[in-house]
Amino acid sequence: MYRKMAMGINDWFVRNSVLSFAPFLRSMARPFDLLRWFSIDSFIAVFIISIAFSMILTHFLKQEILQRDAILTSQFVHSVSQAQIRQAHLEDKLTLGEILDDRTDLSKFERLDAHLVDGARVQFYEHLRVLPDTLLASVFAPDHKIIWSTNPELVGKTTKGDDELEDALAAHIMVSTEYDADEEREKGEQMFVREPHKFFVEYYIPLITQSGKVAAVVEIYKEPGDLEQTIQRGNILVWSCSVIGAILIYIALFGIVRRADTILKEQRRRLVEAEALCLIGEMSAAVAHGIRNPLASIRSSAELALDGDLDSTRKNSSDIISQVDRLGKWVRELLVFSRPVTGEKQAIDLIPLIDDCLLNFATQLEKSRIAVEFVRPEEAVPLVVGNRALANQALASIISNAIEAMHEGGSLRLEVLPFKQHKRVHLNVTDTGPGMSPAQLELAFKPFYTTKRKGIGLGMALAKRIMERFDGSISLHSRAGAGTQAVLSFNII
Predict the structure, then answer these.
(1) CATH number for the domain including 146?
(2) pLDDT tens sequence across 204-239
(3) Which pLDDT does position 16 carry in this prediction?
(4) Element (H, E) at 415
(5) Mean pLDDT of the chain
(6) Looking at the DSSP assignment, which residues form a beta bridge with residue 184?
(7) Is residue 67 assigned to a domain?
(8) In whole angstroms, what is the distance from residue 128 CA to residue 125 CA?
(9) What's the pLDDT score for residue 108?
């Protein structure tokens, strides 16, 4: 009969323990959603990188095309000037840039045919006039005066403050600038025969004398229509390739991570199942071990009560009640530990909490011959974060362990140390018991580990869970033969 009763209790306890751990296991089953966060983060990353890459590449493509057009335009202007000089048979005497300005004194050149000079100058200007996509072409003398232009209104005007022209005159190199058609015109010479549509470019091409000086600077404003179409086609190609590439990369990465996420979820599920089975196994072993000895004592006491006299029957009945109470307390502790720690956060005053807890243990402390010293702080202790009932339970577990450790008497010291600079309050509970070895300290918070003959090994584990529930902590400091100190650390409100 007793064996059936024990098996029934064991089955009931295992079933209820598994049910009570169900919320805990469900909370473990809510892991970080890798697939969702990766899909969002990777999309944003690929999107930003693709846009940045496309913008950089299209800008580079546009600049390269315009730079190539500038080089070709410069080569065309120099080729025309050299051809005109050769046609006028002036290559041994002077360059074209020196004869473009009507103010140039040509008398110093012997046997110079003025008709050939004028012809070379006119033909050069005509080539500039018919240059494709030209909005405006002008020729500047070294003194910044416009000596010729496709817009006659500009001839004779002097330009000041033109940085690009200054660079061309000083550095003897071609200078190019790009403008948006909608931008406000800052240069006075930008008086075009027709208005540009989207953008236009400006080229300054210096013409050098045989001695290396700048004789004149050709300024050309162009609206490169054909180049604009080429740039648009290049932009479309770049953006299309970027979009398609980004989509393919995202799909590939998403597929890989989705496969990895599926594998991780399956492994996590198996791990949760394995942990649950391991936990159930530990609890079953603890239940079997904890119930076996009290049931054996109950059976022996009951058998003796059947054959004994009245006094022995009373004694055996008292033993049965004691063992049943022990089983009841054991089962209650196990059920409390198996349930999730719940409780609203409250502002706790530790001093009254400690006084109440010591008052509850007053009889047990006196019976165990343990002297209690509560070192009250000199200044007010700030309120801490927690739950009064749960904090009282955690402190009671610490004091109960200390009493059981000092079975031959001793002293118990409690001290509150506020650390305002760290926004923490520490409650130190120190006993003069036998202490703990390093191996025992390492296992102290492990469920079902105990060094007490009648203990279940859940008090410290439950205290740790309670402290962590409110972002606190608990630590043990001890060594064999030197007592143990438990430190409960609370957050200040």
Answers:
(1) 3.30.450.20
(2) 999 988 888 888 999 999 888 788 888 889 999 999
(3) 47
(4) strand 410-419
(5) 79
(6) none
(7) no
(8) 5
(9) 62
Q: Is 225 left (phi over 0), alpha (psi -120 to 50) or beta?
A: alpha
3-state secondary structure of 134: strand
- Residue 484 or residue 346, greater confidence: 484
d(CA 169, CA 163): 10
At position 337, the amino acid (one-letter code) is F
Q: How far is it, in rounded angstroms, from Cα 262 to Cα 34? A: 10
286 lies in which domain range? 2-46+235-338
169 with 276, same domain: the answer is: no
Mean pLDDT of 186-215: 82
Of 285, 311, 338, the domain-final residue: 338
Element (H, E) at 216: strand 214-222
Q: Is residue 62 part of a domain?
A: no
Q: Is 212 left (phi over 0), alpha (psi -120 to 50) or beta?
A: left
**Which of the listed residues 223, 251, 266 is the one where a domain comes to its end?**
223
Q: How many domains does the chain have?
A: 3
CB atoms within 10 A of CB 298: 22
Token output for 430? 């120190």
Q: Are residues 187 and 103 in the same domain?
A: yes
pLDDT value, residue 4? 44
Between residues 324 and 376, which one has the greater pLDDT?
376
Question: How far is the C-alpha of 203 from the C-alpha of 164, rounded, in Å?
Answer: 9
CB 385 within 8 A of CB 471: yes
Of all residues in the chain, what percent carry a pLDDT higher than 90?
A: 19
Average pLDDT of 248-276?
Answer: 84
- Region 134-142: mean pLDDT is 91
Do residues 387 and 471 both lie within one domain? yes
One-letter amino acid identity for 157? Answer: K
Taking the mean position of all CA atoms in its chain, how far away is CA 314? 71
Rounded CA-CA distance 318/323 in Å is: 9
Give the residue with greater pLDDT, 294 vs 72: 72
Q: 425 and 301, same structural domain?
A: no
